[in-house]
Specification:
Helix content is 63%, strand content 0%. With 281 residues, it is mainly alpha-helical. The protein has 2 domains: 141 residues; 98 residues, Cd81 Antigen, Extracellular Domain, Chain: A (Orthogonal Bundle). It is found in: Cell junction, Adherens junction; Cell membrane; Cytoplasm; Membrane. Pfam families: Tetraspanin. Belongs to the tetraspanin (TM4SF) family.
Length: 281
């Protein structure tokens, strides 16, 4: 009895936690979608706000099946929940294998996506903040180097460009001194006209793609540990708990099938109360 309750409520707690997380993702996605200006051009292949709503909705549905199925001992819901988890696990495994086998293609697509983000830098405030955060965090500038910013119409290094930021880079590329208290947003002006040795004294010249790859390689154990932990929690652990609960319910059904058929003359229901007792006796 205690073993069954442990399996049941452990699965319920896991699913409930992820159910709450999915609800938060949906709320954040809806807020971001509504709060965005209507005339903003979607810069990426998929709008991040829309992506949050879709991912959150799928998580909400799947974890709801797990919560309700575990609490009500409903084998039909638990089987559906288990099938969804199996499909997601297969998709994640396939994505990892494809990413490993076609690394060059993945890197090329990533580079194009990052370059597209640079081109649309000033058109989306959320994207602008994201790029500034990445360049500050990884101490980088552009995709391959700092001159990639010439692809942006505001920073394009042409004599015909009337922008005050022409031939410059965003302030997030600048090297800030430790004792600097006032942020100089004009620190990147004219940096594309300088050679790398001179520009390196004031801004980061290495591209963000190279810096992110370098960070991933140097933190491979951390990345692998987090990925493995999430996979173990979300997939293997919950799949095992769901399968164990289904197996336990089936066992009880088999034990009670013949006596119940004799007494009532009808089949047992596959739907049990929330606090039904499933003993080995």
């Amino acid at each position: 009895m205690r073993g069954y309750r442990g399996v049941k409520y452990t699965l319920f707690i896991f699913c409930y936690f992820l159910w709450v997380v999915s609800a938060v993702l949906i709320v954040v996605g809806i807020y971001a979608k509504v709060a965005k200006e209507k005339d903003v051009v979607d810069t990426l292949t998929v709008d991040p706000a829309l992506l949050l709503i879709i991912v959150g909705s799928v998580m909400f549905l799947i974890t709801f099946l797990g919560c309700f199925g575990a609490l009500r001992n409903a084998t039909c819901l638990l089987k559906t929940f288990l099938a969804f988890l199996a499909v997601i696990l297969l998709l994640q495994t396939a994505a990892g294998v494809v990413g490993y086998l076609f690394t060059d293609m993945v890197m090329e697509r990533t580079e194009k996506l990052m370059m597209k983000a640079i081109v649309r830098y000033r058109e989306d405030q959320d994207l602008e903040n994201a790029i500034d955060f990445i360049q500050k965090k990884f101490q980088c500038c552009g995709v391959e180097d700092y001159k990639d910013w010439s692809h942006n119409i505001y920073f394009q290094c042409l004599d015909t460009n009337p922008s005050l930021e022409a031939c410059g880079v965003p302030f997030s590329c600048c090297i800030h001194l430790q004792n600097q208290t006032v942020l100089n947003t004009m620190c990147g002006y004219g940096m594309q006209q300088l050679g790398e040795p001179l520009a390196r004294q004031n801004i980061f010249t290495i591209g963000c793609l190279e810096k992110i790859i370098w960070w991933a390689k140097n933190n491979l154990l951390l990345v692998a540990g987090l990925s493995g932990g999430l996979l173990l929690l979300e997939q293997v652990c919950m799949m095992s708990l769901a399968a164990a609960q289904i197996s336990w319910i089936r066992k009880v059904q088999r034990q009670k099938k013949e006596p119940a058929a004799v007494k009532s003359g009808r089949k047992d229901s596959l739907w049990y109360p929330a606090f039904a007792d499933f003993d080995d006796d």
